[in-house]
Amino acid sequence: MIIKSNINLDLTINSGQTSQPPWNFDNETYSNVVMVDSEPRIFQVKQSGDYLEFNHEDKKAISKLNYIFDLNFDLNKFYKYLNNHEELKDMSKFCNGLRLFLAPDPFECVISSICSANNSIKRWTKSISQIKQNWGNQHQNYYTFPQSNDLLNVYLDEEEEFNSSNISNIEECTHNLKNCGVGYRAPYMRKASELFTLEMDLSEISKMTYDEAFQTILEVPGVGPKVADCILLYGFNFRQAFPSDVWIKRIVSHLYFNGKDISVAKVREFGMEEFGKNAGYVQLYMFHYARMSGLMKKLK
Predict the structure, then answer these.
(1) 64, 178, 226, 249: which one is catalytic?
(2) What's phi and psi for 29, nearest 5 deg?
């Protein structure tokens, strides 16, 4: 199937969005297992200029691909929006074709976003990939992300695994969350799994208003405002979310407040009010513009 789209597939998949780790890459093709109507399908997608080559032709698979890479979002219209704002007009030159990389599995986005807190992109993506291999379901050479009830009873660390199993040597205890490199976030991940298994229906989030969804996600252990906005943006496509951390604070301060020190909370509020329904995309472009233009080095 040939799909015409203004997308930079490589930039989008490897942009560090907390929806999921990058897909496998081989022979110029990105691939992963994606659930379509509860059935595992191997998606293979390759960029050829302004076209994407996709290995499925049925409407449900195409619809899923369109969602994951946000192909129905009008980038040209967004670029006109950027060009009409002096502070933003150079961003499309550095990030052309960058799109949201949306989560086919919102629960994976929840755990990925928790894992990303105070963490590097390389480390959290490695951890999430290890969680998939340990407790997900295998389909060919790919693994789905485990559901909340699958992670509910996973051992937190080697000590808990040793005390609760028949293993005689603690050094052999490697089937636990902390062994995946998640560190202090392990209890948060298990508590989130308990919450979404026993108390909260994750599918209800998308039916809420943004404010309702934000307050609901903040109830998840280990989730603060920035992580909540990442979950809502990348996991549920709430485009008015403006995930704000120290880097976005520095960028916004430089572009809009003459370098004045303002709080992360004020930056989030400013971004949502200033950019409205474009807030999520503006935040995404701001971060990558700062990385690619050299601005980030100046702001350290």
Answers:
(1) 226
(2) -125, 135
Largest separation between any pair of C-alpha atoms in the chain: 66
**Angle ∠(27,32,33) on CA atoms, nearest 5:** 145
How many other C-beta atoms can be found within 10 angstroms of the C-beta atom of residue 184? Answer: 10
What is the dihedral angle through the alpha carbons of 177, 127, 23, 136, rounded to the nearest 10 degrees? Answer: -10
Q: Which residues contact 23 (CB under 8 A, 6 or more apart)?
A: 13, 30, 31, 32, 43
pLDDT one digit per residue (tens) for the chain, 300 residues:
899 999 999 999 999 999 999 999 999 999 999 999 999 999 999 999 989 999 999 999 999 999 999 999 999 999 999 999 999 999 999 999 999 999 999 999 999 999 999 999 999 999 999 999 999 999 999 999 999 999 998 999 888 877 888 887 787 778 899 999 999 999 999 999 999 999 999 999 999 999 999 999 999 999 999 999 999 999 999 999 999 999 999 999 999 999 899 999 999 999 999 999 999 999 999 999 999 899 888 887
Tell me if residue 226 is catalytic.
Answer: yes
